[in-house]
Amino acid sequence: MDYVLKTNALCKKYKDYKALNGLSMNVPKGAIYGFVGKNGAGKTTLIRLICGLQEPTSGEYTLYGTKSTDKEILKARRRMGAVVETPSIYLDMTAEDNLKQQYRVLGLPSYDGLADILKLVRLENTGKKKAKNFSLGMRQRLGIAIALVGDPDFLVLDEPVNGLDPQGIIEMRELILKLNREQQITVLISSHILDELSRLATHYGFIDKGQIVKEISAKELDTACRKCIRLEVTNTQTLSRVLDGMNVEYIIVSDKAADVYARINVSKLTLALAKENCEVISMKERDESLESYYVGLVGGKEND
Ligand code: ADP
């Protein structure tokens, strides 16, 4: 598989605090990669690093195969557009003038493609209206339009639906899907809103305390969620040992129960447990949601 972005044991320290603590992630070409984590998990820090706004304390990443330590990284970064935190918009300018400004910043020889970008983000009819009079959703879309100048094939969006109303969220979702499907743009979206991401993402990276705790494709996640079996036993320590021996993925959910995310041979498992004096009290298939999968990985409470 081709990867647009790969990070290897990235660390970023702010004084003694490790905002990123050995983060390794892989964004496949063509993906909509949902970068999910609680507030304070380290999402924006990672995005600032790959955009070149800050330097890692240690570790490295590759963008289109170019190492972050290589001077060619600047060239690779030109293939990337980003909206980090609040979009950098001139509020006293129209949408068109904001875009023209970005063309000039990038030193592009003409305004080729400008009208197409405005149309793509559905701001083609905003005329003389200044950005300060735009809704939040329109501003967010203008931020994306600016990021699209220079024809990037990797778009990085930091919490793009934060603060948007339901209509704004739908428009943002449609835009991201369109960019991915029609323009073949790989998208990295950070969010702490799982439900919204689940309508978009083809891949997920779950981040907690500056580390990726799990990377999984939407397809695999679907399967994992469907195949979850809740096992209630008399001793979860024994269950852990036996499941480890069977090399299956599971999460201990209480002192009596575990969720197993794979097809298991029930009679083999029951026998193995019985040999170690552990009884199966109940076993039932659960239709697990993305949310409970996530909570199982990183716990339920916000860090802040
Ligand atoms: P997220 O985007 O997942 O909400 P951030 O990457 O913004 O998380 O922050 C990760 C952690 O690093 C937080 O605890 C935050 O307070 C801390 N942090 C971020 N930027 C700085 C900074 N410039 N100086 C000190 N601490 C910071």
UniProtKB/TrEMBL annotation:
Pfam families found in the cross-reference section: ABC_tran (PF00005)
Keyword line: ATP-binding, Nucleotide-binding, Transport
SUPFAM superfamilies for the chain: P-loop containing nucleoside triphosphate hydrolases
Highest rank taxon of the organism: Bacteria
Domain ABC transporter: 5-234
InterPro entries the UniProt entry points to: AAA+_ATPase, ABC_transporter-like_ATP-bd, ABC_transporter-like_CS, P-loop_NTPase
GO molecular function: ATP binding; ATP hydrolysis activity
Family per record: Belongs to the ABC transporter superfamily.
Protein name, UniProt field: ATP-binding cassette domain-containing protein
Species whose genome carries this gene: Parablautia intestinalis
